[in-house]
Amino acid sequence: MLRVTESREPHLRVMLRLLLLGVVCFQTPAFLAAQDLLYVASQEEVTVSIIDTRNNELLETVDLKALGFPESSKAHHTAVEPDGSFWYVSLISAGTILKFDRQNRLVGRSNFEAPGMLSLDPTSDHLYVGRSMAAVNPPQRIGVIQRSSMEIEEVDVFFPRPHALAVDPRGKRFFTASLGQNTVAYAPLGVEEVDLYNIDGTTHTLVQFALSPDGNWMVAGGQVSGELLVFDLSNPQPDLVKSIPVGGQPWHPSFSTDGTTVWVPNQAANTVTVVDTETWTVVDVIRHPALAEPHGSAVSPDGNTVYVSGRNMAGTYQSISGDQTRPGTVVAIDIDTRSVIAVIEVGRYAAGMSASSTITRD
């Protein structure tokens, strides 16, 4: 039996007695999950890495293989509830979207063929799901999940391979686009019939959208064209108003929280392009050894840091610790100085990521 001896430090005696009574709780990963977190899917490793954005520390790695999912499942993208209460991950080859609680316990799932991008509507109970780029000929539909029950319905979009996906942060519309043709589908949230907007000219292969915080602008990276497309959303129909050459296969862009810049991972160039939204011009190109086939991006809840994931499939970045071969990377970039402030090694083929909003602490 543990004995509490008298101490000259009164606060130490109190702490020891509370510990024996089970009152004192240390900051375990489950507790820290209530704070400002980044969730990074590692496709080849089939894991989700959870990073504390306040200090850029890897808190926990959720191994989906330990839950019975095979090594071929391909964890691709994540989404997080605005209050951090639940998070979601798509598994391409397992054909499912998983729901976890704040303590990283699996609490629900939805089945959907070749799920890819996830986009959460913060104003309703809906989570939108696109199809994976790896899917050759998936159904021409996106999924809409009722998050509370994880029941899923499918919405026809009438074009092949719907991949790019975004929800208006003001809760007005959703957007998706085809990998096979220059077509964008859009509709008010909760509506099952979409309108189509066709883009003239060369095929872009739109990988992913990002919407400005005020919902007035949308950008999309064109894998084939190497352009960042800018859409004006002030009218019911989106209107392509500008194409910005950025090169290097632009992948998952993100707006800064103040809407003044867009950050574009360039997968084939191992760079991140920074675009000023007042002039819609390139103002910087960031290079770093850990930007190895950059894929996803997300901005921290406090708006100070942009995170970029790196697949590193070619092994151009070597692990500092030597513990991993071809580790995935998460590069933290200070938004004000545009300098790299941290490199966090995660599972192989780091892909889609998402950050929780500012959370009310328990």
Give the tags.
single chain; 362 residues; mainly beta; Methylamine Dehydrogenase, Chain H; 4-stranded antiparallel β-sheet; 28 strands; 46% strand; globular; disordered N terminus; disordered C terminus
Task: Give the topology, please.
Blueprint: H1 10-20, H2 29-32, E1 37-42, E2 47-52, E3 57-63, E4 75-80, E5 86-91, E6 96-101, E7 106-111, E8 115-120, E9 126-131, E10 141-146, E11 151-156, E12 162-167, E13 173-178, E14 183-188, E15 195-198, E16 206-211, E17 217-222, E18 227-232, E19 239-245, E20 254-255, E21 261-266, E22 271-276, E23 281-287, E24 294-299, E25 305-310, E26 328-334, E27 340-346, E28 350-355
Antiparallel strand pairs: 1-2, 1-28, 2-3, 4-5, 5-6, 6-7, 8-9, 9-10, 10-11, 12-13, 13-14, 14-15, 16-17, 17-18, 18-19, 20-21, 21-22, 22-23, 24-25, 25-26, 26-27
User: What Rg, in angstroms, do the CA atoms define?
Assistant: 21 Å
User: What is the H level of CATH, i.e. the homologous superfamily?
Assistant: YVTN repeat-like/Quinoprotein amine dehydrogenase
> Proportion of β residues?
over 45%
Instruction: Spell the H/E element sequence.
Output: HHEEEEEEEEEEEEEEEEEEEEEEEEEEEE
Largest sheet: 4 strands, antiparallel
Low-confidence stretches: 1-34, 358-362
First-last Cα distance: 33 Å
* Lateral strand order in the biggest sheet: 3-2-1-28
SS class: mainly beta
Classify the fold: give the CATH topology: Methylamine Dehydrogenase, Chain H
Number of domains: 1
